[in-house]
Amino acid sequence: MSGAGAAIPEPPSLWQRAEIAIALLALDPAALGGLSLRAPAGPVREALLARLARLLDGRPLRRLPAQIADARLHGGLDLAATLASGRPVSERGLLAESDGGVLVAAMAERMETGLAARLAAVLDSGEVAAARDLSGSGPLSRIGILALDEGASLDEAPPPALTERLGLMLDLTGLSHRDIAPDGIDPADLTDARRRLPGITIGDEAIEALCAACLALGIGSGRAPLQAVKAARMLAALAGREAVAQEDAALAAALVLAPRATQNPAASQPEDAPPPPPQPDPVEAEDPAAKDRPAELDDLVLEAARAAIPAGLLAQLLAQGGRSRAGTAGKAGLMQSSALRGRSIGARPGETGRGARLAIVETLRAAAPWQTLRRREQPDRSGLIIRRGDFRVARYRQRSETATLFIVDASGSSALQRLAEAKGAVRLLLAECYIRRDEVALIAFRRREAELVLPPTRSLVAAERALAALPAGGATPLATAIAAAAALAEGVARKGRTPALVFMTDGRANIDRDGQPGRVKAQEDAMQAALALRGAGLRALLIDTSPQPQRQAAALAQEMGARYVPLPQADAASVGRAVGALLPGR
Amino acid sequence: MAKPFPFSAIVAQEEMKRALLLAAIDPSIGGVLIFGDRGTGKSTAVRALAALLPPMRAVVGDPYNRAPDPAARGEKTHLVPVPVVDLPLGATEDRVVGALDLEKALVSGEKAFQPGLLARAHRGFLYIDEANLLEDHLVDVLLDVAASGENVVEREGLSLRHPARFVLVGSGNPEEGELRPQLLDRFGLSVEVTTPADLPTRIEVVKRRDAFDRDPEGFIALWRAKDAALGRRLTAGRKRLPELVTSDAALHRAAELCLHLGTDGLRGELTLIRAARALAALEGKAEVLDCHIRSVAPMALRHRLRRNPLDEARATLRVDRALTEVFGP
């Protein structure tokens, strides 16, 4: 290794890392798949985009509109030009046009999974899947994707099918325009690096150190270490080296591996972590790697990665994903279904008006085959001859999906048994939702906080895991719980779902909004939170779980505009029925 | 099209490789469902498998890859590679089923059919990544075609049918949503893949893949002999399959096992026997033995247990237990 023994320079700052990531993207856009850049729109992002344009030096840099039509993306028949000229005119799709360059996807956190899947296919194969060509291969499209992610939370992120394939990941949320440093890398540097890149070698120990770092950071995907190896090579080429040096491997780990960490390498296996899967036989009986690998490099690489883990990533994962190690991957199902809303499900013959919209392409399709014939009948007419029978109107399916949010009192006053019933009810509803494709979420509150134990999900596996490890006992922070429920409901509604709230409590608060004990203030705060909830106009149900119906609970329900159901003998089935009555269409 | 990664160079993932080989020997098994995390080489394995298979003879210019009709003379045929067709999420029904050929319609006023992905997958593999996120209306189409082996198109004034028999390979991550029970049942075999947990295996995965990415030709040449040998075993297995003996005792064992597990319907039993036969054929045996049934039972049955849907993890365990009870330890 050429850099062995050399002093390791200071780890680069966040801005420097961003600059290097942009340089790598420009160096060989397709090599790493691209860059997922989380940053609000602003001077920092603009500066990086400008730099990218400069470094690409004439290579394509295209923007990908969020609602791009398939034909425009993949290329195909240019309908308008074909109709005008009377001979087939095909257009090159955006993917083919960007070959060798970078495609910028703005608002990537709102990207549909369908589009993400198509982009993923292009990243995997380096070519456009042609619709017409039966041989199955289309025009080349070796692109890198720059996904601009303006999401505010982990929940709001580009579809994992895409981010999984984008080797570089950066979170610049905290940077301001004062951090922008003058250009350090020149297009000429990249030209040199491109020339050098094919000859760059990487030692086994660097590959092994990167793999070891993946394991330590809890990165499951096999793509990540491979992307890190490629990034290390490119970094070496950029630095003017012939072989990958220690600092290249370390920087590659910071750029590629750190943002994908799901566990802190320092922490030992948490106790409630699932047992490791059975170990398949290693391919080679004797392992040349493990014995004489310098532990030093492993540590260096891992340390570099750890230093670059975005602040709060692991905490957020823990808070949101619950106990799931695969927390980051579990969001796709949620993101995509909002696209179902008002999804066009084809067209049918019919007239426009009364809310029906003309499906232009479909209408043209219907009219097209007849043009030659009709022209023969009406030789004096020019242009397209469309008759009434050709009209097609679009059909949309407006399916508003429901998300049922359970807010369960896990405090000592409600006792363990209540929790078991709530769990049972959630299970029952989930099994139902499994068929209807609705969602369920669970907030448990105890001591001083309300915890989102189960983020909105349809996954039985995730739900089962979250429910199994639900703790109980302690005080009753009712106000906090109601506020948390309102926040969650708002998030759900933003995604196009209809939230329905189900509170299971005896209504006896003893922790106020600020986390201080005191029954009177706590009850006041709870009532206030309830009033705020009513303002949001949400459908809600309050199940009084105490052995005798409680006055407080009834008052609380009234205040939040919820239906009040005392269920002293609450069991999972009757809770399920009560919830069923709350929601329409069950 | 880019060259696929050699099948024999895929590190570990033995169960997935075996399931794919079995489905290739006997397409009537009904495909493979692969559950697991991203980046575990699922799509790589499917592509690699198709490359193992000998090219197939098809009529020149036929959009459906149809095999030549022995009765018809003078048909021009050529050898084409076994197709692997991706069905991407968000694909339109037009793309999947086929639609009116707009180009022909606009230019020559001719009403012609433009075949879709189902036509292209005929005699090959249809790969659905993230099958559990597939939209319902596409799932319906797939179920229908997979059951009948024929794509019936009745739309836009078109009315036609064409053969569409393919091996369905689906992948998905159960954390992100469940597969519809009907589609689940349709898959013959199911396997679970995980990233290897030990470091040496992971390092080997990265090294091989990196070597392949840097020099595909050279890497493929390195593995050509192994791939060719495996390809010959596959071809031999396919030939041997029709003559393979399945004793009444083996049938009895399979039935006993399914009864024990309480699997719904006959599909499980049928798949179990077919998969065991395919394995025997792959191993060059003349008869299905207990060890074959034992070996394929988990992948043929675990997704069919009548069970609490929340009890996913224990399915494999139940099959194992039943195996011990029926076959002895």
Overview of the structural elements:
The complex is a heterodimer of chains A (586) and B (329). Chain A is 42% helix and 15% strand. By secondary structure, chain A is of the alpha/beta class. Chain A folds into 4 domains: 15-185, 3-Layer(aba) Sandwich (Rossmann fold); 187-263 and 292-309, Orthogonal Bundle (Helicase, Ruva Protein, domain 3); 342-397, no CATH class; 402-582, von Willebrand factor, type A domain (Rossmann fold). In chain A, the strands form 4 sheets. Chain A has a 6-stranded mixed sheet with strand order 12-11-10-13-14-15, with helices on both faces. In chain A, strands 2-5-6-1-7 form a 5-stranded parallel sheet. In chain A, strand 5, helix 6 (113-125) and strand 6 (144-149) form a beta-alpha-beta unit. Chain A is flat. By secondary structure, chain B is of the alpha/beta class. In chain B, 47% of the residues lie in helices and 15% in strands. Chain B has 2 domains: 7-193, P-loop containing nucleotide triphosphate hydrolases (Rossmann fold); 243-327, Magnesium chelatase subunit I, C-Terminal domain (Helicase, Ruva Protein, domain 3, Orthogonal Bundle), CATH 1.10.8. In chain B, helix 1 crosses helix 2, helix 1 packs across helix 11 and helix 8 crosses helix 9 (216-240). Chain B has helices at 14-25, 42-52, 93-97, 102-108, 117-121, 136-148, 181-186, 199-214, 216-240, 248-261, 267-282, 290-301, 315-327, and strands spanning 32-36, 56-59, 77-80, 84-86, 98-100, 113-115, 125-128, 150-155, 158-163, 167-172, 189-193. Chains A and B meet through helix 4, helix 6, helix 9, helix 10 and helix 15 of A and helix 4 and helix 8 of B.
